[in-house]
Hints:
The protein is mainly alpha-helical. The protein has helices spanning 12-23, 28-35, 43-55, 57-78, 82-98, 108-121, and strands at 140-143, 146-149. Among the domains are: 7-78, Orthogonal Bundle (Arc Repressor Mutant, subunit A), CATH 1.10.10; 82-121. It has a two-stranded antiparallel ribbon with strand order 1-2. The longest helix has 22 residues, at 57-78.
Amino acid sequence: MSEAVYLPKLSDKEDKCLKRYLANGFKKSEAYRYAYDCSRMSTASIYVEASRFFKNPKITLWLDYYRENTEKTVQNVLNYTAIDYFNDCEELKIISLECRDKYGNPNVNAAIKADENKAKVAGLLKDQIIHSGSVTQMPSVIVNGEELVLKVGEEFDGNTSSADA
Length: 165
């Protein structure tokens, strides 16, 4: 990670927020709350400040750096590659076929799954998701005495939501 020396210096709070964001599943508002005192702020204000924080060019440089180096870092630190995973799947397949249930049958399902995972890692097999059915739209819901109108399938306007960034 020697390239990081060329990145702008982060304050302790900026570093804390950024690291929390990377560790918490990319929840901006939660990361911002973790690093900064938001006790006197509304949820909407926290959302706005978190969005502003993560649009800061200094922060985006660091995010780009972490995104570019994550795979390399994981492989270097763990020394675990796709070939290692492929070989582990092969071993699991052999073990599952050698293990017997109380009737003397091998665990064929586990062996098939190991082969499927090997094929996926080799790029030979991709998951296909088939959607079927229909959606029933509810016009509104009453929550704490307030009517919330549900607009499933309509265009979302991110400026009017207080959802997490």
